[in-house]
Specification:
This protein is an alpha/beta fold and about 400 residues long. The chain has a domain of about 170 residues: 3-Layer(aba) Sandwich (Carbamate kinase). It is about 35% helix and about 25% strand. It is built from twelve helices and 18 strands. An eight-stranded mixed sheet has the order 3-4-2-1-7-9-10-8, with helices on both faces. Strands 11-16-18-17 form a four-stranded antiparallel sheet, with helices on both faces. Strands 13-14-12-15 form a four-stranded antiparallel sheet, covered by helices on one side. The two termini are about 45 Å apart. The structure holds adenosine-5'-diphosphate (ADP), aspartic acid and magnesium ion. Magnesium ion binds next to loops.
Length: about 400
């Protein structure tokens, strides 16, 4: 008998029929003799709707109260699913994050899970119950409800699988695996049988929302066997693991798009030592993470620096630069929020030159202009105008996978 953690995303539990479908998958697993811990997300668009409700009342609501509000969505799902399971003749117990021992730090809306106290879950499993845990939430050491950030239920599931030493962690969603690009948007996207943790970590952090990036990081760290599959199709999904057997001819595993980025350009900086240090230490001090950076070649004793930040930090970063304009010494700062980062990821590219060149060729053929470029051993990213991003993804995907 093994212990299996199954996670079901929002669309998998969107209405009564789907909750029953999830209850069926869980009870079938249980009836095969396994212990099951299921982690559920809020139904459908509940989290977005709750955010909208909060906005109507107070657009600047504190993060503590936002967490209190958003955590209710997942609790509705687990209680309903427990009822459906009871109706199917099995015993189930639903547990909110705090009841399940999911302790986090107190960074509201982006909390990180500490070692989970599994006693309660173990006790319920020993009583032969199916345990349903609310995803996306935990409790801080001050006794406040916290949430893990959008898409965080994947991370709840992996953290529970690690803490319980589960044999498998299955992430059920609305597509039947991990594809070479978002199958809802990219023509010809192909399902992958397997993918390495490192590649999936890159894809997730570069915008492929199919898995929360911290869930993959955690699965790698604790060696959790992960499978991503559909709660609707019954087809085998994609395994995420340390080493995979198939090495694709293309050396590339996927293409991702991230629209959650903004670019700032500081124009007319003095061309002397210490300027970049001033700019980026100021941003670091105010906890603004910087991603891509380009500095132009100095000319007439002046140069420009462009960099990207998360969209949510863009205004703050611009204000910060403007406040310190004289001290840093530049002419003006320009903010562009209508951009997107498009990336190709593949472990195979480290040993194969020409991947970046193929990306540029694809974009040239599609007539897409590149604003910034960044490469590493396992990825090539380009910054493009947002309105051209989907075309860019399709062109790059066609170039590698058609
Ligand atoms: P859930 O609610 O189950 O957590 P998400 O909406 O968070 O589901 O993630 C699933 C979605 O991720 C899919 O519907 C798909 O549109 C999108 N997606 C983006 N990139 C990929 C990819 N490379 N492979 C599969 N799905 C992807
Ligand atoms: N309900 C949360 C969200 O929509 C968490 C999750 O679905 O993983 O972001
Ligand atoms: Mg998700």
């Amino acid at each position: 008998m093994s212990l299996i953690v199954q996670k079901f995303g929002g669309s998998s539990v969107a209405d009564a029929g789907r909750v029953r479908n999830v209850a069926r998958i869980i009870t079938e697993t249980y009836r095969k003799g396994h212990s099951v811990v299921a982690v559920l997300s809020a139904q459908g668009d509940t989290t977005d709707e709750l955010i909208e409700k909060a906005r109507e009342i107070n657009p600047q609501a504190s993060r503590r109260e936002m967490d209190m509000l958003l955590s209710t969505g997942e609790q509705v799902s687990i209680a309903l699913c427990a009822m459906a399971i009871e109706r199917m003749g099995c015993q189930a117990v639903s547990l909110a994050g705090w009841q399940a021992g999911v302790v986090t730090d107190s960074n509201h809306s982006a909390a990180r899970i500490k070692p989970i106290r599994t006693e309660r879950i173990r006790k319920e499993l020993d009583k032969k119950k199916i345990v349903l845990v609310a995803g996306f939430q935990g409790i801080s050491r001050y006794g406040d409800v916290t949430t893990l950030g959008r898409g965080g239920s994947d991370t709840s599931a992996v953290a529970l699988a690690a803490a319980l030493h589960a044999d498998l962690c299955q992430i059920y969603t609305d597509v039947d695996g991990i594809y070479t690009a978002d199958p809802r948007k990219v023509r010809g996207a192909r399902k992958l049988e397997e993918i390495t943790f490192s590649e999936m970590m890159e894809l997730a952090s570069l915008g492929a929302q199919v898995l929360h990036n911290r869930s993959v990081e955690m699965a790698k760290r604790y060696g959790v066997c992960l499978e991503v599959l559909s709660s609707f199709s019954g087809q085998p999904g994609t395994n995420v693991k340390e080493v995979v057997k198939t090495v694709e001819k293309t050396h590339v595993s996927g293409v991702a798009k991230d629209e959650n980025v903004a670019r700032l350009a500081l124009v007319g900086l003095a061309d002397r030592p210490g300027i970049a240090f001033k700019v980026f230490s100021l941003l670091a001090k105010h906890e603004v993470n910087v991603d891509l950076i380009i500095q132009s070649i100095g000319r007439a004793e002046s140069k420009d620096i462009s960099f990207t930040v998360a969209l949510g930090d863009a205004r703050k970063a611009k204000e910060l630069m403007e406040e310190h304009r004289e001290e840093i010494g530049f002419q003006f700062v320009e903010l562009n929020e209508d951009i997107a980062k498009v990336s190709v990821v593949g472990a195979g590219m480290a040993h194969n030159s020409g991947v970046a060149c193929k990306v540029f060729e694809a974009l040239y053929s599609a007539g897409v202009n590149i604003n910034m470029i960044s490469t590493s051993e396992i990825k090539v990213s380009v910054l493009v105008d947002q309105r051209e991003a989907d075309r860019a993804v399709q062109a790059i995907h066609d170039r590698f996978f058609a």
